[in-house]
Amino acid sequence: MSFEAHLKEEMRLVILRLLNELPSYRGNSSTLHSGLNHWGLSFSRDQVKTELYWLKEQGCIEVEMDNPAVMVVKLAERGQDVVEGRARIHGIKRPSA
Q: Which domain holds residue 79?
């Protein structure tokens, strides 16, 4: 696996973890971008949105609002299962025990 692929898997897991910690399991792309930077994962806002669309396709999140400035997303049940280690999706890093 390339280092870039490893970083994407890590980024996707961290996004799900951040949503799992937010009230109502909801957040926006700007807040998630800041959260990723806090954890040492520096990606552009465009990259964050691209990964949010990918997570939606996997059934891990729901997109509640999508406009050019910001996306509002909510953690789906499948995404919470991934965060808690009950489900595994190829392309998302498995959480540590």
A: 3-83
Higher pLDDT, 32 or 69: 32
pLDDT surpassing 80 at residue 97: no
Taking each helix axis from N to C end, the angle separating 3-21 and 45-57, rounded to the nearest 10 degrees, works out to 80
What gap in Å lies between CA 61 and CA 51, rounded to an integer? Answer: 11
In which band, very low, low, confident or very high, does the pLDDT at 96 lie, cut at 50, 70 and 90? confident
CA distance 54 to 91: 10
Burial level of 78, CB count in 10 A (0-12/13-18/19+)? middle
Does the residue 88 lie in any domain? no
The verdict on residue 17 lying in a domain is: yes
Task: Please say if the pLDDT value at position 13 is more than 70.
Answer: yes
Instruction: Give the largest CA-CA distance in the chain.
Output: 38
